[in-house]
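A favour, since you know our structure tokens better than I do. What I am after is a single protein written out in full by you. Could you add the entry underneath, on a fresh line?


***
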Amino acid sequence: MKELGIFEDEVMNSTQRDAAGDLSAYSYHMADLGTDAMDREKAFQLASRDGQILHAVNEALRKVYNGHYGMCARCAKEIHPERLEVVPYTRLCSPCQEKEEKGRA
């Protein structure tokens, strides 16, 4: 949560001028502007991924509290303990996860 807060302060609430460290709104060179944009996009993607993991962890904690931890959200079967050991915040058993990934491809 602290890292996401730092991300919000440093990246999301900053402008191109702040990112470039210049007094003007533009970098000295077009390549610098592209690099700044790429760095901001990469930071946003990393924070988005971290936010998704944080949400999944919170969901897993709610399931522990409600007594539903370790049950697949799709088929309602028990998730294998070894899978939970590797990804404790998973919501799907291995077969359902494979089906979901194949459906996206």
In short: The chain has a mean pLDDT of 80. The helical segments are 2-12, 16-20, 30-66, 81-86, 94-104.
